[in-house]
Amino acid sequence: MFSTLFAIGFALVAPRTVVASCAHGVEWIHPFSATVNGTVAIPAFSYGTTTGPLNWHNLNTNNTLCGNGTNQSPILLNTTTSRAPYGSITLNVPITDSAVLVNLGTNVEVILNGTLKAANSTWKLLQFHFHTPSEHRIDLAHHEAEIHFVFTASDGSAKLAVLAFFVQVEDEHTTPVIEDILSYLPDVQIPGTTTQVHAVDMSAFQEHANKLSYYAYTGSLTTPPCSESVSWFIATSPIPLYIKVYKALKDTTKTNNRYTQDNPGQTSNIESTIPEKNWVVPTRHKGGSSSH
Ligand SMILES: *[C@@H]1O[C@H](CO)[C@@H](O)[C@H](O)[C@H]1NC(C)=O
Ligand SMILES: *[C@@H]1O[C@H](CO)[C@@H](O)[C@H](O)[C@H]1NC(C)=O
Ligand SMILES: *[C@@H]1O[C@H](CO)[C@@H](O)[C@H](O)[C@H]1NC(C)=O
Ligand SMILES: *[C@@H]1O[C@H](CO)[C@@H](O)[C@H](O)[C@H]1NC(C)=O
Ligand SMILES: *[C@@H]1O[C@H](CO)[C@@H](O)[C@H](O)[C@H]1NC(C)=O
Ligand SMILES: *[C@@H]1O[C@H](CO)[C@@H](O)[C@H](O)[C@H]1NC(C)=O
Fold first, then answer.
1. Least confident interval from 7-16, 25-34, 108-117, 223-232
2. Cα 79 to chain center, whole Å?
């Protein structure tokens, strides 16, 4: 397992295809190896029709959880959702000149180093990426976007954590570091391309983030292979972004949210809609008049 994490962490230095085989069904957490100005492999799944979310489980035998998992993400959140103890989340991303922005076709991803302290564990940052609109919903409502910081356990286990932030489009406020990073989008308009992002300073962002309240639940990756046992921490209040920046993001990521999954522990939406299994045929009233 250590060599697996090593390979992922150092993928930028020693480009190679990262095909990690780990326990807990978390065998594919980093879909590419990237080099600055290099190219990356575009995933086989999409947010379209036949290769879209309703069919992810049929695209690859490793994706079965996308169809029949019982702790899948995203889910509906509301006031009854568990929260992480206040002050128990600490994000730390050192200032860096060597973050890499990647266009995966399905998403844009920023690769950089950092740590998260949450649920009494320390996690290692792999990348963060964007979904438009949000994947999770609060009281049934989507936000304009959702940012996912993806971490692996630093103890060598295959566990994953995701720290998530909703984005709300605003006239008067923005989040400067996200705006700075997204200002590089014109350099990666072609899926598969990468560029180096200079002077990424997350200090103000993380100072704010570490004071927020977080929903906490155990779910899955929201992309194939939909691996479970993912610790989710989702900020209850959104971060702002100017509309111009949001539009540049959306023009690149298009619509890339997975549909809402069943509540944790319940049969997956796909399984529960198989007719023979669960349909209750409504009783017809006999002798009713039909009108045209
Ligand atoms: C990437 O390529 C562009 C155009 O060829 C070049 O100007 C830029 O310096 C390169 N970036 C890096 C980090 O090598
Ligand atoms: C499933 O994942 C394993 C481990 O990562 C990999 O070796 C195998 O090629 C994958 N199967 C398919 C059909 O892609
Ligand atoms: C999900 O489907 C796979 C492949 O058909 C099967 O091996 C696995 O047992 C199923 N899991 C559940 C929880 O039904
Ligand atoms: C909160 O969400 C849960 C799970 O979806 C649902 O069962 C419950 O009715 C919701 N409660 C409120 C107050 O919306
Ligand atoms: C992350 O840290 C490793 C060494 O700890 C370094 O080799 C790598 O270049 C760093 N990656 C980025 C994107 O800064
Ligand atoms: C973290 O550790 C404290 C003290 O041991 C414990 O009370 C708390 O429940 C733990 N929190 C989590 C989320 O595991």
1. 7-16
2. 22
Q: Minimum-distance ligand to the CA of 98?
A: 5
Continuous H helices in the chain: 2-9, 56-59, 65-68, 176-182, 203-209, 243-253, 269-272, 275-278
**Ligand 4 pocket, mutate which of 71, 76, 78 (most atoms under 8 A from CB):** 78
CATH architecture of 57-261: Roll (3.10)
Q: What is the mean pLDDT of residues 196-208?
A: 96
Ligand 3 centroid to Cα of residue 23, in Å, is 16
**Which residue CA neighbors atom 11 of ligand 1 most closely?**
37
Query: Is 49 touching ligand 4 by the criterion CB < 6 Å?
Result: no
pTM: 0.84
